[in-house]
Amino acid sequence: MSRQRKRSFGFGFFVTALLVGFLGYWAVTRYASFADAPIAGLHAGDTVTVAPGDSFPVVLGKLHALGVPKGDSLAWQALARQLGVAGRLQVGDYALDPGITPRVLLLHMREGKVIGHRFTIVEGWNIRELRAALARATLLEHDTAALDDAALMKAIGHPGQHPEGRFLPETYVYTRGDGELAILKRAYAAMAKALDAAWSGREPGIGLKTPDELLTLASIVEKETGNADERPLIAGLFERRLKLGMRLETDPTIIYGMGAKYRGNIRAADLAADTPYNTYVRAGLPPTPIAMPGNAALQAVAHPAGGDALFFVAIGDGSGRHLFARTYAEHQANVARYLRNYRKARKAPPASTSAAPPAGTPVQRQ
Question: What is the tens place of the pLDDT at every residue in 23-75?
């Protein structure tokens, strides 16, 4: 080979090497810039779902459908391989917050940093209302739909136990793909813990024999008032009636016993019907709780207010508050006041917030 050809070959090799090096440098710089730059094409509130069985190309297709440019597909796949994401995608919903980078999003998918959804058990719900609310939760797996209450309790590990009152009202965080059973198991454990704490720390001499009795009375207190300061007053009143052998005569137990037959009104025949939940007819507590009491109601029963009141009735002014009385004569005067307020409220113009007396507020009798 001539010296001229050698020089030409050497120069060509140098140019090629320089070009390859430049392209390599450009690719590395471009790749690094892609990995740590905000993802283009997203909008506030966007989320992407990794469903069971999704491969990374499928998830990438979902990102493209949201507006992420398709021109970076190779960079996405290279980054996914580098981070070890392929084959380790965690199922769930992922937030595409403004400014999120490909690297951060893929690490979230690898580590399962999914969006947490919330389900709230409301104080005072009964088991029918709880199960209906679970059935409406669209992101939960409905794995209890085919179970009756007995099968449900068996599935969560407590066969033979009545489900009423056994799930603590609280907000529970879950992720897409979780089942109803998972939430119910957590709520059951939370109630067991709260009930144990209330029972262990109860005031001496409250007269209740078992934690289950405390739970049952707390469920009645929960249904009787939504006013925090009244719960210990009503708990103390009911506990005094139990000690004296007086019937509780509380409407929420009647309503619970009526079940689906309740249409917003308690008739004289309902008050006279001899059923396990009719505390106008039967002495003592009903056989089970009648609702899910919150922790405040549990603590109110464990630490009832002192006093000598044995009767109470709604004020009837729309506040949801009550009048308390020591004697039946005082109670009758309070009933008269309630009736005046109730009639006045019914005559009020439509804009008034006053209304008919709240269902479940008892007119206590002797």
Answer: 344 445 556 679 999 999 999 889 999 988 899 999 999 999 999 999 888 89
Q: What is the pTM of this model?
A: 0.79
CA distance 314 to 320: 7
- CATH number, domain containing residue 87: 3.30.1490
**Is there a single domain that holds both residue 246 and residue 328?**
yes
pLDDT for 160-186, tens place per residue? Answer: 999 999 999 999 999 988 999 999 999
Closest by Cα among 177, 176, 158, 175 to 167: 158
- Closest Cα to residue 173, out of 125, 96, 115? 115
- How much is the CA Rg of the chain, to the nearest whole Å? 33
Where are the strands (E) in 88-174, listed by range? 92-95, 117-120, 171-174
Identify the residue whose tokens are 């690719």: 27
Return d(Cα 266, Cα 363) in angstroms, integer: 12
Residue 18 lies in a domain: no
Q: Are 220 and 250 in contact (CB under 8 A)?
A: yes
If asked whether residues 208 and 343 sit together in one domain, one would say yes
Question: Are residues 343 and 234 located together in one domain of the fold?
Answer: yes
